[in-house]
Model the fold of this input.
Amino acid sequence: MEHSADEMMTVAAARELRDGEVCFVGIGLPSTAANLARGRHAPDVVLIYESGTIGSKPTRLPLSIGDGDLAETADAVVPVPEIFNYWLQGGRIDVGFLGAAQIDRQGNLNSTVIGSYEDPKVRLPGAGGAPEIAALTKRVITIIRQSERTFVGELDFTTSLGADDQVVITDLGILRRVDGELTQTALHPGVTLDEAREATGWELKVADDLETTDPPTEDELAALRELERA
Done:
């Protein structure tokens, strides 16, 4: 089956989740990927949303962290401070699933402003729980499209610091943080290394054993498209 770049990115991100993990997930592509994983290879993944829902099993993709479907299908709903004080600070969350508007070579993220903070060109949704998620989960999965606008030499604002165990899934390939620097470890089918380099605002570090991502299977695509239609 033919697939889009966004579908390849979402499937690749979903594959990173392991069954039984506790996952702090954001809205948008992170939520799509996490729920795709839950519906396929990771049925026992525990999804936690910032609104205080634990073990949510949404019947459709949530529109926001306040979507009622998250609470109705959750194993428990707790106060937001408990999510951060007990779950995050207590080291009980395995993986954080984040998006961003900008990323730099160390994996630091910007979801606050484009331009200067005092007089921004664009004001973004902001930090939310992202700084704590990036700092306190055991590993971080970041989903972001790869271009010179997003892969920048210097962030306009540092919202979250890069994590030691961090994987970045883009529409072009997969990068992992190696010795403190993002390294291109895989390219999606049909993507060239030159394309990845041109879409990166710094001299891209490339793994010696650069791989090609397996394309989405028919089952993965069918499940993703059904999820997005619901």
Summary: The mean pLDDT is 95. The longest helix spans residues 218-229. Residues 7 and 221 are 7 Å apart (CA to CA). The helical segments are 5-15, 29-39, 68-72, 80-88, 130-136, 193-198, 218-229.
